[in-house]
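Sanity check

After download, print the first record. It should look like this:
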Amino acid sequence: MILTRGNTVVDAENYMNLEVRKILEWAISNKLNVIEHKIKCYAYVSQEKKGKGHIEIYINNKILNQFNKSKYLGIIFDSKLTLRGHNNNIEKSFQN
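Expected structure tokens:
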């Protein structure tokens, strides 16, 4: 998991692409394969930040798919970092 932030969405996007490039170079130097379609991109953009709400992160000149929900360590997060999806999932498990 890579987390980043910036004064603007574009700043955060540029920093993320730089860090991803470093990781990709490290993986190649250590003879590790990077499979683009298995990598998930999840973005949270606060309402105070102006600009685009979608970020473009590249690996091997391909834009990674961006998802609205993500599950990490068993917790479901949405693009606004609320736990609504997680709470709904727990409620469903109790109903069954």
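If your output differs, re-run the checksum step. Summary of this record's structure: Residues 25 and 32 are 10 Å apart (CA to CA).
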